[in-house]
Design a protein that fits this description.
Length: 291
């Protein structure tokens, strides 16, 4: 599937990719790496904000070279403008967007954040709406969930609850109606997406085309115990991936989801969630011209 626009260069690296057993979700453990024995938090914050124009604007509003700075600032102002940033979820959503664009070759279908009523409002429903071209030539729909928390168990609890709510019949139909209403006519796949999500389509037929990427970023002590991407670090990342998946599956099995969908789990264990959030906030303020 041709990419709609050229994304920023890849930055986060997959340090573990667990695909067994076959009946469990695949899980990717991501990492920005180290530089001079330092986990690259500052570089990660700078990179993630490079995705702002693509993530926060409509397809027809994305910047050309001549309008880049103006549109980049406009995109940054869409996120939030308050100082109450510590418990907001936009950075998790932005990281989810960046990761699945590179790792799964998706394209953004609509920018949900673009349609917020006010700058400090939050996005309702799924945290991203992407598409990809499947092997059978049809469109697949990617409805993502993102959590950026200090504690892993809190992130897993929250995302499991949202999956149960968002995969209910009525919620999905409302989400599809919202997406259809917001599709940019200039989008190269606008007609195909409208056809896929049309209210006359059987829900089972639409659900069969859905992937749910679940992105979880949270503090993990072992990140601060390493200074390089060593064999030991890679092994720790694989253990983290397996543990996080097991915890999510346990939560889902205790209270089953309304329907079966393809879940792709992506985890980003971080050294210090509060510090990374501060760095992301400062980077956003610079993009907004408010630093």
């Amino acid at each position: 599937m041709a990419q709609l626009i050229n994304p920023p260069a890849k930055f986060l690296t997959v340090r573990a990719h667990v695909i067994t057993p076959a009946d469990a979700p695949q899980v990717l453990a991501m990492c920005p790496g180290f530089d001079e024995q330092r986990w690259r938090a500052e570089e990660l914050a700078r990179h993630i904000c490079l995705w702002l124009p693509e993530w926060a604007l409509r397809y027809s509003d994305r910047p050309t070279t001549a309008t880049m700075m103006k549109m980049a600032r406009r995109a940054a102002l869409k996120v939030y403008t308050s100082d109450g940033y510590k418990s907001r979820g936009e950075f998790g959503e932005l990281m989810l967007h960046a990761v699945i664009r590179h790792e799964f070759g998706t394209d953004i279908a609509i920018s949900k954040i673009y349609f917020k009523d006010t700058a400090n409002d939050t996005v309702k429903g799924f945290d991203c709406v992407h598409i990809s071209r499947a092997e059978d030539g049809q469109l697949d729909l990617w409805l993502g969930e993102a959590k950026f928390y200090s504690r892993r168990h809190e992130a897993i609890d929250a995302v499991a609850d949202e999956l149960r709510e968002h995969l209910s019949r009525d919620y999905l139909r409302d989400e599809f109606a919202f997406v259809i209403e917001k599709i940019d006519d200039a989008h190269p796949y606008a007609d195909e997406l409208r056809e896929l999500l049309d209210e006359e389509q059987p829900l089972d037929q639409i659900v069969s085309r859905i992937h749910v990427p679940v992105f979880l970023a949270y503090d993990r002590k072992f990140i601060g115990e390493h200074e390089e991407v060593s064999t030991e670090f890679a092994q720790a990342m694989e253990r983290e991936a397996v543990e996080a998946r097991a915890k999510l599956l346990e939560k889902i099995e205790n209270k089953p989801l309304p329907r079966s969908v393809v879940i792709d789990l992506i985890v980003l264990p971080v050294k210090d969630k509060k510090e990374l959030t501060r760095l992301l906030h400062e980077e956003l303020r610079q993009w907004q011209g408010r630093a």
